[in-house]
Write a structure and sequence with these properties.
Blueprint (H helix, E strand, L loop, with lengths): L15 E5 L5 H8 L4 E6 L2 H14 L4 E4 L12 E7 L8 H11 L1 E8 L21 H4 L6 E3 L12 E3 L1 H10 L2 E8 L2 E6 L19
Parallel strand pairs: 1-2, 1-4, 2-3, 4-5
Antiparallel strand pairs: 5-9, 6-7, 8-9
Length: about 210
């Protein structure tokens, strides 16, 4: 946190913040400490929420907490000035769907995104289209790749995916986000792209499927 805390304004007076996958509330409490008018932390694990509630009571920093899956964010019915989406993506079976839903329903301005990455840090230029018989670009280190974890990684069965850097950036753009800054290799400060359509910045000839 110390390495990229400068990305968040020192004062968040009057701002609303949503912390997705808030765990024990560390970031949510820090946002409240910085003066945010309202902070909502959501997590699907009630044990983490209980820890966050205790931390809130001990520190005297009032935050709201709600048990919820990231796939259900539309139920919140509101957008937030700042959304924290950190340490969540690689735990999701449907990561791009989650990014679509977060952008479509809850990001009002900025999002701080972080995910575990593995593989090359290179981001190679990607063409708009390729011939069906072209294959070499798939093997290039800087081509967007998402590594699938079938069993466990680091002893954790909830780790499903490990994108490379190019894949993280490409997924964010596909979901309708503009990358404003990358203060750390796995951290992206994003803004909802102007004119982004529901479900992300999808090309008109390539409709989002499976929604």
């Amino acid at each position: 946190w110390r390495r990229f805390q400068h990305v968040v304004p020192e004062r968040l007076d009057g701002r609303t913040v949503l912390d997705l996958g808030c765990n024990a509330g560390f970031y949510a409490l820090e946002m409240k400490r910085r003066g945010a008018a309202r902070v909502l932390g959501v997590d699907s694990d009630p044990r983490y929420l209980a820890q966050a509630q205790l931390a809130s009571e001990v520190t005297g920093l009032e935050i709201e907490l709600r048990e919820m899956s990231v796939y259900d964010v539309a139920e919140l019915g509101e957008r937030f000035d700042l959304v924290l989406f950190m340490g969540v993506l690689y735990h999701l079976r449907h990561p791009l769907l989650a990014l679509d839903l977060v952008g479509e329903h809850v990001v009002g301005d900025l999002m701080i995104f972080q995910t575990m990455q593995r593989g090359s840090e290179e981001e190679a230029p990607v063409a708009e289209d390729y011939d069906f018989f072209e294959q070499d670009h798939f093997a290039a280190p800087g081509y967007p790749k998402m590594h699938f974890i079938e069993h466990r990684y680091a002893g954790d069965p909830s780790n499903w995916w490990a994108p490379n850097a190019a894949c993280s950036a490409a997924m964010l753009r596909s979901a309708g986000f503009e990358i404003v800054e990358r203060p750390e290799p796995e951290v992206y400060l994003c803004r909802r792209s102007a004119g982004a359509s529901p479900g992300g910045a999808v090309h008109p000839a390539r409709p989002a499927a499976g929604r």
